[in-house]
Amino acid sequence: MNPAPLSFRAVTALIVAAYAVLLGVLVAALGHDLLRPVPGLAPQVSWLMHETTQIRVSALLASGRSGSASLYALSAALSWGLIGALCAGGFVWGVLNKGATVLGVDKSMGYLTALAGLYALSTVVELGLHHLPVQPRGFLHAIPALWFAAMIPSAAILARVGALIAHDFGALIVIALEGEPKRIAELVASAEETRGVTSMEARLARRIAAMRAPR
């Protein structure tokens, strides 16, 4: 008896778990003096901000820690690569399989709203910190170990959520464009049963069905 193929949820979970473990081992093996603060470093709110990687790498290089600087730059590149690859892979998977949504439109919109809000908050906080008359230096934000501790799990979470959202987006787009009556009917039935008749996904599915109905 052949084992059932892994679901998209399971595949993405395995990928981000492997990323977190492997990168964590790499940092533990190659990182040196990661608990020693970087002197004179102004606070950076998140590794996701545009200039954070450059600022942190430059600060590490200026303090004579080229190995840690290279390790941080590599970790940031791998993290962004994971997010981009899983989002692209999720979209392609959704387009090719045209299956049921895995996260759902309602949850996807909730996650996107939360992420946009967090990014906006981070931007406001960072701008506020940079405009302080005297910027705090040498506190917890200057400890490289905490940079990695924040980067690895957050990248894993963002990559998986992004992959699930992209999967659903791809599936809905191809179903709407191809307009197969049977598949659209399945989408409507599945959305109403699993998400609820009044859910955003069910309303969207019914709208797609109405748009693709023969005139």
From TrEMBL:
Record keywords, A-Z: Membrane, Transmembrane, Transmembrane helix
Transmembrane parts of this sequence: 12-31, 71-96, 108-125, 145-177
Protein's UniProt name: Uncharacterized protein
Organism: Hansschlegelia zhihuaiae
